Amino acid sequence: MTISVLVVCLGNICRSPMGEAVLRNEALKRGITNIYVDSAGTAAAFIGEDPDERITIVIVQKSVPISHSARQLRASDFTSFDYILAADGSNLRALKRHVGRRERSKAVVRLWGSYLPDNKPIQDPYYGGLDGFTEVYEQCVKLSNAFLDQVAGKKT
After folding, report:
1. DSSP secondary structure, 16-76, as one string
2. Which residues belong to the active site?
3. Which carries the bigger pLDDT value, residue 38 or residue 106?
4. Which of the residues 74, 91, 126, 156 has an alpha carbon 20 to 30 A from that of 20?
5. What is the pLDDT of residues 81-92, one digit of tens each?
6. Roughly what angle, to the nearest 10 degrees, separates helices 130-152 and 53-61?
């Protein structure tokens, strides 16, 4: 059975595409191939755009593959994904208010940070420098492994 995961932030050009790429990569490093990962934004501002270039810089440095075009969250995401992971509290609230959540939703909707004891959101690095994107990468690695530990079993 394939596990399907949607990572969500505001514009789908920073945190969520990085989270998507990192989660997929961490799963593959564990030999988990029965996982489908995508990402989306709660806002429509950047539909069709590539990820922020600072993400690409960090991801390339870490040898993590990424191929992404921004998209907005759809009502059908709540019935097609097993897990929808919000980058922060604002996006979690938007997900909980979304009409798709009320239409036969099968998705577990959670703050991605809730998979770690500190329950920390992923801060938006958009208005900062490259260091903020590196911090988001490191947080995504930790969150990916904590998520995979819970849904696919502890790393061996």
Report:
1. HHHHHHHHHHHHHHTT--SEEEEEEESS-TTTTPPPPHHHHHHHHHTT--------B--TT
2. 9, 15, 124
3. 38
4. 156
5. 999 999 999 999
6. 60
